[in-house]
Amino acid sequence: MKILFMHNNFPGQYRRITKFLAPKKKVKMFAATLESNKQQFPEKRVNYTPHREPSESIHPSLVATEGAVLNGQAAYKALLPSREKGFRPDIIMAHSGWGANLFMKDLFPDAKLLTYFEWYYHSVNSDGDFLKEDAYDANGQLRIRMKNTPILQDMASMDWGQSPTKFQHSRLPAAFQSRISVLHDGVDTVFFSPNRKASATIGDVTLTEADEVITYVARGMEPYRGFPQFMEMVSRLQKLRPNLQVVVLGNDRTAYGATRSDGKTFKEWALSEFDFDMARLHMPGLVPLRVFRDLMQITSAHVYLTVPFVLSWSLMEAMSTGALILGSDTEPVKEMITDGENGLLVDFFDIDAQIEKLCHILDNKADYQPLRDQARQTILASYDTRDLLPKYWKLIQSVANGSQMLDV
Fold it and tell me: Which of 117, 150, 294, 320 is most buried, with most CB under 10 Å away?
C-alpha cells in the first residue's frame, strides 16, 4: 500500500501512526509538506511552497480561502512530476483546513482520501466568542463562516474523515458527522508513565515530587490557553506560598487567536503587568519531550486552561504520567476530566477559585493520589496507542480498499 501524507508541518498528528506503520514492509509512505517545515522524518519528502501570499486587496473574509487555494495549487504543482513518473498513492491522508489537499482528487482521482478534521469554526458558543464581552458583529460572523470554506471542500471530496475527540467531532457540520470517525492517535503510556522517584532540572534548579511545583504547558502563551489568567494567578499564589516553584513551557508567541494590539507578546505583557519572584518562576521555552515527561511526573498540580477549542496532547500525556490536573470547566476538558474523580475542574476566569484549589492541593498532596491514579487509568482505558494505533490501521485499510467503514 502506498500512503501519501499531506500536512503543512508533517508529521504533526501523523507522528504516531507513521512510526507504527514503518515496520510493515508492504506499506510505503510519502509526505508532502511545506518547504519551510524544518522537521526531519524518514518518509520520502515532497516540498511545496505557495508562489505568493494572499492578496492585500482581497475581501477580508476570503483571505483564508485564497491562502488555502494557493497552498493547494503549490502542492498540486509539486506532486505533478511524481504522477508523470507513475506514482499513484492508494490513499491520501491529509490534515484539513490549510488547503494542501484541495486538488488531490484532481491529481490522483483513483486514490482514496482520508481527511483529518481538527476544528470547524463557529462565531457563537465556540472558541472565538468565549473571550469576547460582546458578540461578533456582522463582518466578524461573515469572516468566521467563510473561514470554513476549505474545510467544506475537504468534506465534499473525502472518502472518509477522522476527528480526534467527541467534542471536536460534535462541532463539525451534522450533515457530515456520520462519515467522520472519532479516533484519537493516542498516548504512549509506556513513555508517559508515573515515576515518583523522577526529578526535573530546569536551569540550575532540580525539582522532585517533594517540592511544591505548579506546571503549565502550551504551544504559545496566549488567551486561548488561559495564559493571562494563569500568570495573574501565579503572581498572587507566589506571595501565599514562599516555597512554590512554577514552570511554564511553551513558545513566547500567539499560536491561536489574536495578537496584542500594542505589539507586545502576552509573556512580555504579563511580566510587566504582574509582580513575580523570577527565581521561582521558570520559563525555559520549548524543552525535550523527556524533560516535559519528567515535569509531569513530579508536578504537584498541572494547570490546563482552554477555551472551547482543540484539545492539547499535553493534557492527555500529563494524565498518563499520573499528574493531578486542575483544568478549566470547558467542554474539551470535561470530555477527559470528571471533577473529583480523575482531576479537578475550575472556572476558566475565576482566579480566586484557582488559587483556593491549588492551595488545598499543596497542603494535602496525599489526599489527591486517587485522582492521579484514575487520570492514568482514563488514558490506559481509552487512549493508549497500543489499542488505538491498530484501530487506526484498520481504518486506513478500510478506506483504502473502499470497504464498509469500520466502527472504530
Answer: 320
